[in-house]
Design goal:
- β1, α1 (about 10-20) and β2 form a beta-alpha-beta unit.
- With about 425 residues, the protein is of the alpha+beta class.
- The strands form 5 sheets. Strands 10, 11, 14, 15, 16, 17, 18, 21 and 22 form a 9-stranded antiparallel sheet that branches.
- The chain has 4 domains: about 1-90, Rossmann fold (3-Layer(aba) Sandwich), CATH 3.40.50; about 120-185, ATP-grasp fold, A domain (Dna Ligase, domain 1), CATH 3.30.1490; about 190-320, 2-Layer Sandwich (D-amino Acid Aminotransferase, Chain A, domain 1); about 325-424, Alpha-Beta Complex (Glycinamide Ribonucleotide Synthetase, Chain A, domain 4), CATH 3.90.600.10.
- It has helices at about 10-20, 50-60, 70-75, 80-85, 95-100, 105-110, 125-135, 160-170, 240-260, 290-295, 305-315, 390-405, 420-424; strands at about 1-5, 25-30, 40-45, 65-70, 90, 120-125, 140-145, 155, 180-185, 190-200, 205-210, 215, 220-225, 230, 265-275, 280-285, 325-335, 360-365, 365-370, 375, 380-390, 410.
- Helices cover about 30% and strands about 30% of the residues.
């Protein structure tokens, strides 16, 4: 098979690494890819939103399967563009990707189908939102309705903060058109857990749980980021939680989307909050998480191509999804100053230390080849250093040890990824 992966981050590198393990695949392309992906795939200079060019490339090169890694093209309808040309593509179509594309839609869906989530109100008028806040209980959560690179959520502790947040999202358009509409919801307390799943429109198969660290600084301080590290499985995702979610959340979501005429095929990422009142849905994503993919995919025993094709063909019920009985931890090496401002173009040294080391991975998120052919930094999140271990503590120790193998100017990381493991 020839496979095309669309995207350029650590998630796409993790997907490419899994695809490369498949005995069914001869050739991998990635558009646009990055320097790390370029070591296992042929990178093609086509942007993720250039649908016509992507479709033309897939036809010209007789691509057997295209895998969409990113949220923007999914919400924009890239799957529809491929399907219109009779091409096989993995990911939800535009009608289904609205599950991530509009927080207002997903909240209304949960309310309609009794899927547990935080109490909320939707707004398209900033004045009405400000009026509502005067009667609301603090702290409170503000969410830009559309896609905002995982950063469009503000947790406000006071009325003044919340009012400033409404202005930022809806009036100043900090997140662009994503802030034309807004969700205001109750603040929930508890542990967050991420659960990824494969879906074929009717059947859902749950992957191993994970837990992300969104804040830039140690102790969950600093600004929200795309994710500074993650671990899998989460010790807080117990058998009881799993049974509850299977009954009231996972299948219920798939069935709700089908009932709405928005049959979902691809990945549903469930962001859960384990509250005192039981698990509740924080958010949905319509693709692999980043960096969750970096700890979940390396532990998957199945051939990823078999599973993705079953999602497309509606035969997922025939797949026995299996994961290794171990753990993985990913520590993101970022550019100092991320997520606000940072310099790029520094040479990355030590990548060769990961070659032929079983259970260790260095997933590239923001890297490129410079004019001299050297791999340099090219983003806020640069690398996802990932390691497996028999236990979470061992995986964590291995991952942090491996961060020492890499060096680049202005390298920055959190030192407490997976610290919650010690409390479990």
């Amino acid at each position: 098979m020839k496979v095309l992966i669309v995207g350029s981050g650590g998630r796409e590198h993790a997907i490419a690494t899994s695809v490369a393990k498949s005995s069914r695949v001869d050739k991998i392309y990635c558009a646009p890819g990055n320097a790390g992906i370029g070591q296992i795939a042929e990178c093609v200079p086509i942007g993720a939103m250039e649908f016509d060019k992507l479709v033309a490339f897939a036809k010209e090169n007789e691509i057997d399967l295209t895998i969409i890694g990113m949220d923007d093209p999914l919400v924009g309808g890239v799957v529809d563009a491929f399907e219109a040309e009779g091409l096989r593509v993995f990911g939800p179509n535009k009608a289904a990707a609205i599950l991530e594309g509009s927080k207002a839609f997903s909240k209304d869906l949960m309310k309609k189908y009794n899927i547990p989530t935080a109490a909320y109100e939707n707004f398209d008028d900033p004045e009405k939102a400000l009026e509502y806040l005067k009667t609301a209980k603090m702290p409170i959560v503000l969410k830009a309705d559309g896609l905002a690179l995982g950063k469009g959520v503000l947790i406000c502790n006071t009325l003044e903060e919340a009012e400033a947040g409404v202005k930022e999202i809806m009036m100043d358009k900090k997140f662009g058109s994503a802030g034309n509409h807004m969700v205001i919801e109750e603040f929930m307390t508890g542990r967050e857990v991420s659960v990824l799943s494969f879906v074929d429109g009717k059947t859902i198969k749950i992957m191993s749980s994970a837990q992300d660290h969104k804040r830039a600084k140690d102790g969950d301080q600093g600004l929200n980021t795309g994710g500074m590290g993650t671990f899998s499985p989460s010790p807080f995702y117990t058998k009881e939680v799993d049974e509850f979610c299977k009954k009231y959340v996972f299948q219920a979501t798939v069935d709700a989307m089908a009932a709405e005429g928005r049959t979902f095929k691809g990945i549903i990422f469930f962001g859960l909050m384990l509250t005192e009142d039981g698990p509740k849905v924080l958010e949905y994503n319509a693709r692999f998480g980043d960096p969750e993919a970096q700890v979940v995919l390396p532990r998957m025993k199945n051939d990823v191509i078999d599973v993705m094709e079953a999602c497309i063909d509606g035969t997922l019920d025939q797949i026995d999804l299996q994961f290794e009985d171990n753990a993985a931890v990913c520590v993101v090496l970022a550019s100092d100053g991320y997520p606000v401002s940072y310099e790029k173009g520094f040479e990355i040294k030590g990548l060769e230390n990961f070659e032929h080391k079983d259970g260790y991975y260095c997933f590239h998120a923001g890297s490129k080849l410079n004019e001299e052919g050297r791999i340099v930094t090219n983003g806020g999140r640069v690398l996802g250093v990932t390691a497996k271990g028999a236990t979470l503590k061992e995986a964590r120790a291995n991952a942090y040890a491996a961060t020492e193998w890499i060096d680049f100017a202005n390298k920055y990381m959190r030192h407490d990824i997976g610290k919650a493991i010690d409390e479990a």
